[in-house]
Amino acid sequence: MEAKTFQQGIHPHYNKELTNQKPLHRAEDPEEVLIPIQQHIGAPAQLIVEVGDEVAVGEKIAEAGGFVSANIHSSVAGEVTAIEEKNEQVVVKIKNDGSTKQKTNLEAHDSLADVTSSDIRDIIQEAGIVGLGGATFPSHVKVSIPEDKNVDTVILNGAECEPYLTIDHRMMVEMAEKVLFGLEAIMKAADAQKGYIGIEVNKPDAIEKMREITSDQSNIEVVPLKVKYPQGGEKQLIESVLEKEVPSGGLPLDIGVVVNNIGTAVAITEAITEGKNLFERAVTVTGAVNNPQNLIAKVGTPIEELIEQCDGFKGQPGKVIMGGPMTGKAQNRLDNPITKGTSGILVLDEEETKDYSEAGPCIRCANCVDVCPINLVPTRLVNLVKEDMIEEAEEDGLMDCIECGSCSYVCPSNIELVQRIKLGKEKLRAKKREQ
Q1: Which among 236, 308, 335, 402 is least surrounded, fewest beta carbons within 10 Å?
Q2: Secondary structure, 3-state, the chain
Q3: Which residues are annotated as a binding site?
Q4: Over 70: is that where the pLDDT of 355 sits?
């Protein structure tokens, strides 16, 4: 079968060879974790612990603050030593006592026959599961299908198109059964009849393993995808796999599709079969470190501890990014903790760090237009934002931008296109709040 793809996009240096053959292994637990109570899109969770409380691994420390929100659980056993503000949000500091004492409100189920669609949604919600590809949208919301919608298809995103990151690749190779079970659980929760797993062809071992594990599943298909960024974007993945287009301003749900990440599927499996809440996740630690690795790490672990477990920096670091180089966020402190949305920790050396202070004027080359997977005109959006013409920018598709960074990557003038578009979105949201 010919590998599928979408229109436009780019081919950055992927650098996945640093970790794509390195198996997942468990990181050492930190002596102390710092757990933010908002690790998801939507309303912040509401604290239910106080300083001095003793908590167990997996115990709930904050309850969802609404339907579009997520529970937060402790990743270690120990004492709550502080509740403070860090990076403009509330965090819970817990001192690890080294014990393995666990607590959960979930029961373990042997098979999907033991749970209803409603049960699955409730389990996902109680476990605090969110999109682990980085979007962190509460997963129970995605599979709570409105009465006026009809979902017939679930797509698992195994593209992992972001450079450097390899955790989804390793999970498909090492945890194929959990990936498949999670897909089937999502399909049951959404009442979908057809499932797809889209995987870029630079992961042949993952394609082989997932085809092997799904060989007797007539309603599940593994779809090879061309290696291109952002192949893993929801709309691009749907275009590649189904040759369907999500309408401007719309959601995959509008065309009967639910898209989930590989890691999310594994977390759903563990919640159903083990009664496990989401308090740890797989993280690729890579780039300019001496021993790049794929680690399963506790939420709340400081970045610096994981870098140290990879034998420290290799040379002089220029930038430390939480996530990948295209969509990740540069960090101003190494004691910042990983969260549910942390797919990677990337260290770039000084030579790899792009200096936007040297940005020049737009030369009207149209490179950004040629690569935009949404068919926007990024420079026009940026100019409208600069002139504070926010409504006009909205009409031109400001909110359709998926912030993939393709335009910034190809800009010969080093213009901060994505950053300025993000600023425009914030201005638009602020204006709507005022209204």
Answers
A1: 335
A2: CCCECCCCCECCCCCHHHCCCCCEEECCCCCEEEEECCCCCCCCCEECCCCCCEECECCEEEECCCCCCCCEECCCCEEEEEEEEECCEEEEEEEECCCCCECCCCCCCCCHHHCCHHHHHHHHHHHCCECCCCCCCEHHHHCCCCCCCCCCEEEEEECCCCCCCCHHHHHHHHCHHHHHHHHHHHHHHHCCCEEEEEEECCCHHHHHHHHHHCCCCCCEEEEEECCCECCCCHHHHHHHHHCCCCCCCCCHHHHCEEEEEHHHHHHHHHHHHHCCCCCEEEEEEEECECCCEEEEEECCCEHHHHHHHCCCECCCEEEEEECCCCCCEECCCCCCECCCCCCEEEEEEHHHCCCHHHCCCCCCCCHHHHHCCCCCCHHHHHHHHHCCCHHHHHHCCHHHCCCCCHHHHHCCCCCCHHHHHHHHHHHHHHHHHHC
A3: 362, 365, 368, 372, 401, 404, 407, 411
A4: no
Q: Residue with structure tokens 């194929």?
A: 176
Work out the end-to-end distance of the chain between its first and last CA atoms, rounded to an integer number of angstroms: 52
Q: Which residues contact 104 (CB under 8 A, 6 or more apart)?
A: 58, 59, 275, 276, 277
83 beta partners: 92
pLDDT (tens digit per residue) in 193-252? 999 999 999 999 999 999 999 999 999 999 999 999 999 999 999 999 999 999 988 899
Residue 2 pLDDT more than 90?
no
Both tokens assigned to 269: 């499996």
From the list 50, 337, 52, 258, the residue with the least C-alpha distance to 61 is: 50
What pLDDT digit, counting tens, does each position of 107-161 carry?
A: 999 999 999 999 999 999 999 999 999 889 999 999 999 989 999 999 999 999 9
The amino acid at 435? Q
Among 378, 371, 381, 285, residue whose Cα is nearest residue 328: 285
Hey, what domains does the chain have and what are their CATH numbers?
24-104+277-352 (3.10.20.600), 130-274 (3.40.50.11540), 356-434 (no CATH)
pTM for this entry:
0.95
Q: Are 397 and 374 in contact (CB under 8 A)?
A: yes
Q: What does the pLDDT read at residue 6?
A: 94
Q: pLDDT digit string (tens) for 66-121?
A: 999 999 999 999 999 999 988 788 999 999 999 999 999 999 999 999 999 999 99
Question: CB atoms < 10 A from the CB of 417, how many?
Answer: 25
